[in-house]
């Protein structure tokens, strides 16, 4: 009845969508168009071997060139992408884009030793067959599995641990590298280390930030590096911004580092410029 409708509209006015909810709502409807319009792109951040100073690989980090909002970072849309299920579409796009970049470098005989790291959230394992997707893409592009690394981040409670454990086994089985991202935060913890046979631990940047001044972080980071060694895993520190942080990590025997101290994530051409210049410096 009209009376009922009136009641409803009063309710809507009393509970207007707040700005954040509105932004989320409109973003969600933009997602589908964005893929078609090629609004997503990847930036690449180098990873550096702490002993040799060589770039060992790059991490692909997705960005959204939004027609009205400008360049948006994943912090602003990743959670929504996960909750709305769009992450499986976006994640498949990221994998394909990152691997075709790899393919292009190899065709040019360029930086053949580099590994491409791609972020995947636990939710992606639940929503789609990542292992199959990875296998198909590697085959299609004729790429060796060891040139791909998946960085797994935890964002939902681990109700599907068997599925993920099984997927990690299969990925390692075909030769893909697996790392545990943001180690020490959220749900990524010792449970992960025991259950998932990953290659690498990536220490979250929140533990790196106050090194070497914070005694707590000194203790935590030292312990994680020692633990990785005992477990025969590689260990990488993210968010390295200062010489002091780097020196601390060198002393503790961390394997690799990544952060603004070396380079922020870069658009493709700038990344290639960075790689070329480093090569020049080394051969001089
Ligand atoms: P992450 O994988 O832990 O990536 C590291 C984040 O720290 C990146 O933010 C990077 O730009 C930033 N960062 C790197 N070095 C430094 C530093 O020295 N100092 C500081 N303060 N920050 C640094 P970004 O690119 O905004 O990505 C945020 C997160 O979004 C990523 O964290 C990752 O979990 C997620 N993400 C990014 N791309 C993808 C993707 O393609 N798929 C999925 N599932 N998640 C993604
Ligand atoms: Mg990562
Ligand atoms: Mg991380
Ligand atoms: Mg992170």
Automatic annotation (TrEMBL):
Coiled-coil residue windows: none
Domain EAL: 24-279
Protein name (database record): PAS domain S-box-containing protein/diguanylate cyclase (GGDEF)-like protein
